[in-house]
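User: I'm putting together a small comparison set for a docking exercise, and I want a reference complex before I start. The sequence is below, and the ligand is 6-O-phosphono-beta-D-fructofuranose. Could you produce the 3D structure with the ligand included, as structure tokens?
Assistant: Of course. I'll restate your input first, then give the structure tokens for the complex.
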Amino acid sequence: MSRLVVISNRVAVPKARGAAGAQGGLAGALNSALKKHKGVWFGWSGEANEERAGTINMQRHDGVTTATIDLTPQEVDDYYNGYANSTLWPLFHYRLDLTRYERETAKGYEAVNERFAESVTPLIEEDDLVWVHDYHLLPLGERLRSRGLKNRIGFFLHTPWPPTRLFVSLPSHERLVKTMLEYDVVGFQTQEWLESFLHYCQKELGAEVDEATGKVTYDGRECTARAYPIGIDWDHFQAQGDTGEARQACQRLLSSTRHRTAMIGVDRLDYSKGLPERIDGIGRFFDQNPERVRDLVYIQIAPPSREDVDSYQKIRGELEQKTGQINGARSEVDLVPIRYVNRGYSHAELFGFFRASKIGMVSPLRDGMNLVAKEYLAAQDPEDPGVLILSRFAGAAAQLPEALLVNPHSPDDLSYMIGKALDMPKAERLRRYEASVATVRDDNVQAWTERFTADLAG
Ligand code: F6P
């Protein structure tokens, strides 16, 4: 088996793994793949440091070698806060209103990709498979090729890929996609994002596209683009559910909610997650059913994210204001309708909270996949499962059509689905859960890694 070199913006040290569910699924997913392939995981340390920028820090932990570099404060601003999270992230989540186009940050993004290529090249051996992740590193494959790398190099995008008409608003759209065609395999979360990418290649670049196989031929090179829906680490998550920590978390929530049904949402504090819209839906539910304030308690776990980016500061303020308004209007001395928690929890605790909550609320306005939806289902009691309310705009909706699919922009639809979930008879809960849980268990992160790396190995 070839060694695997994974390259991503962030590299999770194993001790941080517990919080991966709240941070996004990437960390847990890659750890499993690397253990199996005895590979190296390269990326940014998360530190801004003028003097040490570019120096490689190697560590070996639990069978995985990590290699990280610091970036300068200017690089962090231009590449991470700037082009990656103020240009590509909003654009890829269909938020043209939040997308900033700045030539300087675009240059910083290219420069950091070049720095990554320069630092990682000496770590790559001749037969290694190289697997690059996410929107931070779209041009990295081309940068590696320009250094003479002949290895098989693949790329996986964890976010959505936008429709061509939105994507062409990016000044460097053509250059970015041309660099992506230097990869041997390009993976997307869903068929929908894949089709948008192929549409762009055909219509804007004039590439030859075989839709049946995903083969894109351009400028004498061939690249295969396919959908590889990511999954959770089922076994690891179930093992977390068997711990005392998970049982205690479950009990803690049950005893604090008593005769009320707990509905839970766990999201990074990001505008793509539809949090203010969700609170509006909950407000609408209480407006339409004021007596049910005694039936439902909503728990929102929202660890802060990308706090140096303006749009993230705004979303936090908006969420706090909306939550405060509902709680102010509807609380009693012994009852608060919305609990809002601004921190992350371990996987074991999340398992317990999910198990204790009879409704899981996952309503992003747009999401590449959303692993919280899958984790919620994985944590349910198979004899008496809860109900998942899921945005039809999350990639996970394509795999989980038996969830209660909701339009996250519509307070009325959200309100209707909350009522439906609260009143759903056990037989229907069981039927919906059983129709969904098999794909969560079987299409897991190990299966995802194997499919991608098998295609990459050719
Ligand atoms: O899922 C998208 C993603 O950017 C992942 O790559 C990342 O692990 C997660 O969101 C958290 O974001 P950040 O690394 O910016 O904190």
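DSSP finds 17 helices and 16 strands in the chain. Residues 10, 23-24, 26, 134, 158-159, 305-306 surround 6-O-phosphono-beta-D-fructofuranose (CB under 6 Å).
User: Thanks, that's exactly what I needed.
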